[in-house]
Design goal:
By secondary structure, the chain is of the alpha+beta class. 41% of the residues lie in helices and 14% in strands. It has one domain. This is FRG domain-containing protein.
């Protein structure tokens, strides 16, 4: 493969496996360090293309003047090319109104060892239980924790103002990025980010990210390798089109169209957009290992590569910047382990459930369940967290004069709903 790296750009918006065959399946493709360098190079070109399109969009440029004799074709180019690649473009999605980051040509997920299943954190936990009732009760508690996290966010004027002035606050996706169990699986369109997660690890004791060491990677056959899951942007668009239209020709086709990649975009705190965050909202278990629309790219670990990527991402600071919520992680940790919830949190979780139909019976089952060990689930008037007035004011002062355009270097744009195909 290394010998073909100079022609990488011919493949980057396609599937790498097509170097071998036109058939796309779930086999693992081994890539070299030269291939990784080529991926990084192509990622930089991709980013520059998006920056150029964004500048042109902000300057008021469009494609209509290029070919006035075919305005319909130019309109499609505007909607399908310019809008997605313009940073700050506002769009409505099934999961909310999103201020998009510029859409690059590929999506990735990086993992620092070989796992049997790549699924969201909530699904991994639910798989520990055998009984359906236990799974549903745990899911209910997980959703209550997410709801409490959302209510915690809306304690701040900064977040309230964001929801009023800019876009929806996607607190479920944010909860995933801050360590709560959700049914969201993180995806990125920045290869740098994916490679960081594939070559580094989080030290829980020191609460910091570090590069993998040789001692760590040589423990088992699975730890010797990092994994990159890759899907081209055009495939994501095709899946979304068919999913939204409901055009599944067979049950197998329907299965292959489950894993939609959804944008998270710019959110009140920086972690999501610094990671160029996208996500798969996986309602039913469908591991990436079984999803043939994603390629499986495996590479051999080395300390040199891990250290290089670690430094390239400023020791993780380019992915985990210091922002307002960092100083409140103790509260978020409390919410993650909480067993006391408000009625509002219960209503949120109950309304999401397709299993429970009687609120009184549901509360009784929660109170009597033994799956939460020594924790008794309490639903009442108290939040599981305490936020002092001083800490609330401190965060709001940090963002008192916040401007999304100034802080994130973007211009909010949208295409008028009345604009029709010429």
């Amino acid at each position: 493969m290394a010998a073909q790296s100079d022609t990488w750009s011919e493949y980057m918006s396609e599937y790498i496996s097509r170097r071998y065959t036109d058939k796309l399946d779930n086999r693992i493709i081994d890539i070299t360090y030269e291939d990784i360098k080529a991926l990084l190079h192509e990622n930089e070109k991709d980013a520059k293309e998006c920056e150029a399109v964004t500048r042109d969009s902000y300057a008021g440029k469009n494609f209509y003047s290029d070919n006035p004799s075919n305005l319909r074709f130019e309109f499609y180019k505007e909607v399908l090319y310019r809008d997605p690649k313009t940073s700050g473009f506002i769009m409505q999605y099934p999961h909310g109104v999103v201020i998009r980051q510029a859409e690059r040509n590929n999506y990735y997920r990086g993992e620092n060892q070989i796992f049997s299943k790549s699924v969201p954190s909530l699904i991994r936990t639910l798989n520990q239980y055998n009984r359906e009732i236990d799974k549903e009760l745990y899911k209910l508690v997980a959703d209550m924790r997410i709801a409490e996290f959302g209510m915690f966010l809306f304690e701040f004027d900064f977040v309230k103002n964001w929801a009023t002035r800019y876009s929806d606050v996607l607190f479920e996706a944010l909860a995933q990025h801050y360590g709560l169990e959700t049914n969201w699986l993180d995806i990125t369109n920045d290869f740098n980010v994916a490679l960081f997660f594939a070559t580094c690890y989080y030290d829980g004791e020191e609460k910091s990210w570090k590069p993998l060491t040789k001692e760590m990677t040589e423990k088992t056959e699975g730890t010797k390798y990092g994994m990159i899951f890759h899907i081209p942007q055009w495939q994501v668009s095709t899946q979304s089109m068919f999913n939204n239209a409901g055009q599944h020709s067979s049950n197998e086709d329907a299965k292959n169209l489950i894993n939609d990649v959804l944008p998270i975009g710019f959110q009140p705190f920086m972690r999501c957009h610094m990671q160029h965050g996208y996500g798969i909202k996986m309602t039913d278990e469908f591991p990436l290992q079984e999803d043939s629309t994603f390629e499986k790219l495996r590479f051999r670990h080395s300390e040199k590569l891990s250290k290089e990527i670690y430094e390239r991402m400023d020791q993780g600071r380019l992915i985990y910047p210091h922002e307002g919520l960092i100083d409140l992680m103790d509260i978020i940790e409390t919410i993650k382990e909480s067993s006391t919830f408000t009625e509002d949190a219960f209503d949120y979780a109950f309304d999401k459930s397709t299993y429970f139909t009687d609120k009184t019976k549901c509360k009784k089952l929660l109170a009597e369940s033994i799956i939460f060990e020594d924790k008794k689930i309490i639903i009442g008037n108290s939040h599981p967290f305490h936020l002092s007035r001083q800490r609330r004011r401190r965060l709001d002062r940090m963002y008192k004069d916040f401007s999304i355009e100034k802080e994130y270097g973007i211009k909010l744009t949208t295409r008028p709903s009345g604009e029709l195909i010429p």
